[in-house]
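User: Please predict the structure of the protein below. I'd like the answer in structure-token form so I can feed it into my own downstream comparison script.

Assistant: Understood. Taking the following sequence of 107 residues as input:
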Amino acid sequence: MSHLLADDLDLKQWASLSNTERNDRMKILIFTDPDTGKKGCTLCKKLVARPYDHIENVHLCLAAYQCDFCDKSFKSRNLRAQHVHYNHKEEKKVRMIISGNKNPQKY
């Protein structure tokens, strides 16, 4: 199914797209239910709370999101963010401090 969205991109290129660019490519796969106003997936017709995450997790199945702190890869930005939060919290704080971030404690 990934060929629908990333036919002209390899996995590294897909992962390097900005959130806006990725979301723009995925918009064609999202509909709004006229009765409920909820978002849905055109591929499986499910109504989902987070359609972009749903499409990446269920339909794209790309392991294109590399962890900056270890060698693990994830099939969505959300899964990578959860991994970093639970497994690399202190490393991320240090990196934020070194980079000059004024509020590293929120990470």
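That's the full token string. Residues 1-62 form one domain.
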